[in-house]
Protein: Putative lipocalin-2 1
Amino acid sequence: IGYPEIRFMMRLTGSLILIGSVSLFSLAADEVGTVKQPKANHKKHLDIIKVFNTSRNLWLYRRTESDEFEVVDGNWKIGFLERCIFFKKINISTSNYYFWHRTEWNGSRLSSLWMGTFVENGEKQPLSMLVSDLEEEDPTPFMNMTLRYTEIGNHSCSVFSVTRLEPECQEDCEMYVRNHNGSIEPTEGCRQSFETICKNRTSYLIYDKSCRNKKKKIKQKDP
Structure:
């Protein structure tokens, strides 16, 4: 969990208290099983721009970071459940990706303006991007996303390695799914790739069918 998420929490509680310490506790999980090694996604098929260049919502379906957290400060403690996260494209170029990051914390829906800056890495097409929250007073990257797998052709499901740019943060895995033929479900290749890339890690289901019914009711901050 990073600073943008902490800011979301404080907006929900309506508090101006500065959090002196944040304790994170995993409260629920479903285990990732062992599967056969999927066929590798050759790097020539891995183009992060093509994954994000869609007018459809890009849903965070599953990840290795817990969906439940507790914020502790002094004598008070508040638990949070995060659900229904998706990216919504505003604009994209060969350099940057501007998008809404939309999420739900304890039933309250929130929206923030984020920007991804694509990182040159010696390949013909970028595989990574640095993410900044443009609603911060001094936006600086807080997260790096690297594409590890995508469905060839339609990019309906993709797997990323995600690293928070904070001390002692471990690398996490995230699976993103587009609406494909009326369904928001990962492909078998995507499932197997996630389980292989994120081997021996607990994962958490972030998306459920009720999320699609809530997307039009999301709150945005005043400009």
